[in-house]
Write a structure and sequence with these properties.
10 helices, alpha/beta, five-stranded mixed sheet
Length: 242
């Protein structure tokens, strides 16, 4: 009887995903608000396949840093490596994909390239906080490199996060806004035009998961990092343009 029970348990363990962990394990992630949709889908899929309860908090990267320093339960950060690395909080990084900056317009307005923002029709142009948000920094860099920063200075409206920019464009409170491709895809049907900003006009964005120092050996963390390399995780990220 005991032998049969052992064999049955062994069969279950062999059939379980490699990233399974103990019952009752949990994971808390802090991530950039612009990645809310893919991160929530990753955590939902991971929880379903591993049995580990996974949750996330979101904000601009400055808010993410503050959360990580104040909340000892946070084990991973997700965002642009260029923002995460200087925080000095992570012991290693897992590259998830490349971020892409896009420009969206309100319904009724169209453009073909970023330079079209010079048109007076684009009286209010939103971007995330350029010092605290990945895509705010990317948008600011793009405007500078394309010679638009000074001509458009009086028309720019800076808000906290990517989703706020998207909401302002979708409701027509601004005429155009810079977001990431994930937010742009989610806005389809509620906006006018979506175009991708030339990649040469901003620094490469490396979407990464940073494992906080001292958390790398936590079973739930090891399980999630392993999950991130799986085909299921890659499929989620690819659906969101990364």
């Amino acid at each position: 009887m005991m032998r049969r029970l052992f064999l049955a348990c062994a069969a279950v363990l062999c059939a379980a995903p490699a990233w399974s962990a103990g019952e009752g394990d949990s994971l808390l992630v802090a991530a950039g608000a612009g990645y809310r949709r893919p991160v929530l889908q990753l955590l939902e899929d991971f929880s379903r396949t591993s049995g580990i309860r996974a949750e996330a908090s979101f904000g601009n990267m400055k808010q993410v840093e503050t959360q990580a320093r104040q909340n000892p339960d946070i084990a991973l950060l997700i965002g642009d490596k260029a923002f995460l690395e200087p925080m000095g909080l992570a012991e290693r990084f897992e590259l998830l994909g490349k971020g892409r900056l896009v420009l969206v317009t309100r319904k009724g307005l169209e453009l073909k390239e970023v330079a079209d923002l010079r048109d007076p029709r684009f009286a209010r142009i939103a971007l995330p906080d350029r010092t605290k948000a990945v895509y705010g920094n990317a948008a600011s860099t793009c405007l500078q490199r394309t010679g638009l920063a000074e001509p458009l200075a009086a028309r720019l409206l800076e808000v906290a996060t990517v989703p706020q920019v998207g909401a302002y464009v979708a409701t027509g409170e601004v005429d155009a806004g810079f977001v990431n491709v994930t937010e742009g895809q989610a806005l389809q049907g509620r906006i006018g035009t979506l175009i991708e900003a030339p990649q040469h006009c901003y620094a490469p964005i490396e979407l990464s998961a940073g494992v906080l120092k001292g958390r790398g050996d936590v079973p739930a963390v090891r399980a999630f990092v392993e999950y991130l390399t799986s085909p299921a995780a890659r499929a989620v990220l690819q659906r969101h343009g990364m």
